[in-house]
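Researcher: Good morning. I'm working through a list of sequences from a screen, and I'd like to move beyond sequence-only analysis. For each chain I'm collecting a predicted structure so we can compare shapes side by side. This is the next one on the list. No need for commentary yet; just the structure.
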Amino acid sequence: MKPVVRRYYLRVGSAGPAQEAFLTPLSASSTTHAPSSPDLPARTKMLCGQSEDSIPARLVDVGKGRPVVFLHGLVGLNDHWEDVAKRISHRVRCVLLEIPLLQLTGDDCSIDGVEALTVGFLEQHLAGTDQLPILVGNSFGGHVALRIAIDRPDLVGGLVLAGASGLIEKTMVSDVQIRPSRDWLRRKIGELFYDPAKNMREADLDRAHKELSDRRGARAMVKLSRSARRNHLGARIPEITAPTLLIWGKNDIVTPPEAADQFMANLPDARIVWLDECGHAPMMERPAEFAEAMLGFADELQRRGAAR
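Model: Good morning. Structure tokens for this chain:
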């Protein structure tokens, strides 16, 4: 089956109009701002994985409508999705799942283990919902979302991928250090952004320094990253039947534009939004545009569902 490829372009900071876009470019004057609401309420959700240990995950569940489940990367947090979630929770149900990846051990500490934890969560937490969820994944979280779409298509109504691993990835752990210096971490985390001076958060640097200064956290980072790199999905991407939206930073050096091009060439039903002056974490660098693209995709899925 020949892939159905839809290309949409959103050029932040450029003068030209978007091409074939279901959304329009956002100028500096028209860009919406996140509501000035407090942090989204969170609670603890206990997960059980392959090791049969109880793992405390942090869960945010706000809004009504079709469920949209957000999956973070190796050094990610629910907080990194909040600026997007606040912009779309009036239209969809936003479910932010934060698994303590760098605290995982045993069989749970692998791409297989994290997929199993996430599948268990979806089966339990979203049982009885009228519509299959849209899975939204960044980096390692995008890799997990892809695997679920391949292995459990009955749990996935759509995919949104941002800097997803699974094909091409420059790992940050190639020279990972036990008890890394703050300068090393600042450089590595800075690589995630087009403009680290504007977007890198000191709180994230502090947390990463604390977690990776613990030998167990550093080992978990290396183990998870290596298991993901060994799990190349190239041959299996065409198996994905879920409609997929890619939101990709043109300046991503971790999963570069070639990775998005490969996804687009092999996904059966794909569309893409390119963001100029944006790196590996577009939900943080361009939350308004990310939210706009997501709502356009959700509307497309709704129209397609109604037409059946």
